[in-house]
Design a protein that fits this description.
Layout: E1 15-19, E2 41-45, H1 51-56, H2 62-75, E3 80-83, H3 92-98, E4 103-104, H4 111-118, E5 121-126, H5 134-139, E6 148-152, H6 157-164, H7 172-189, E7 193-198, H8 207-214, E8 218-219, H9 221-232
Helix pairs in contact: 7-8
């Protein structure tokens, strides 16, 4: 007779997402929209973590809050944990050490792998290039021998108003145009770019447009979460020959 084990109030979420405190709209494809995922997720807001003290400056004291929130998600049964902002890569190692499930805090963690895949320059599109420092790159394992080119969206009107300054309404089509322009401008400046990595976890809705307009692969948050999901929830293959 099969038995199942209890001990929690609810079951089923596979990925836990640690969110910053924000109020801007999150359209499908965004890390904070449940329709983005083909599997159950659970969201947890990290109290006190804002755009100001995560993106515009790094409040090191937030590390404790992220660790405690990650532990809560682990107790609630998730199989892996991520965050809603690539700048939290500074907390990656400490969070991963604190729990017993995989942690992938930032899309930037993909850069070393993508470089191995394409053996060429990686174009990083970030929410704010002025505040994306060498510390963030180093924390993601991006060493000096990995050629990168970085462009930020901080000067783009709609993206900046909505995402960086937490606007309560948005024009997604305008943001899409701004993301395309940013990618094209970076590619014109560095024509040896062979792939893009989107640091910002809000940019996945616009990846298709960038692939269409540049012809280059785009590795974004959605790429990463699908990768991790397929590592922690495995397909069971039949033992016959498939016919």
């Amino acid at each position: 007779m099969m038995k199942v084990k209890g001990g929690r109030n609810f079951y089923g979420p596979v990925i836990g997402v640690l969110l910053l405190e924000t109020k801007f709209p999150r359209i499908p494809g965004d890390v904070g929209n449940a329709y983005t995922y083909d599997f159950p997720v659970i969201f947890k807001v990290v109290k006190g973590a804002t755009l100001s003290n995560v993106v515009f400056q790094t409040d090191e004291s937030l590390k404790i809050a992220f660790i405690e929130a990650a532990k809560e998600l682990e107790r609630e049964g998730v199989k892996a944990i991520t965050t809603s902002c690539g700048f939290t890569v500074l907390f990656q190692d400490d969070m991963a050490k604190a729990v017993h499930v995989p942690v992938f805090a930032s899309s930037l963690l993909m850069v070393p792998l993508v470089y191995r895949l394409v053996q060429g320059r990686i174009g990083i599109i970030t929410a704010n290039s002025r505040n994306l420092t060498q510390r963030h790159l180093k924390a993601a394992g991006i060493t000096e021998d990995i050629p990168v080119a970085i462009a930020g969206l901080e000067t783009r009107e709609e993206f900046s108003r909505v995402i960086l300054y937490n606007g309560e309404d948005a024009d997604p089509e305008k943001i899409e145009r701004e993301v395309i322009e940013t990618a094209k401008d970076l590619l014109n400046k560095y024509p040896d770019i062979k792939a893009f990595v989107f640091e910002c976890h809000n940019l996945s809705p616009f990846s298709h447009a960038v692939v269409r307009e540049t012809g280059l692969p785009v590795f974004d948050f959605y790429t990463f979460v699908q990768f991790v999901y397929n590592a922690v929830v495995k397909r069971r293959w039949p033992y016959d020959l498939g016919f």
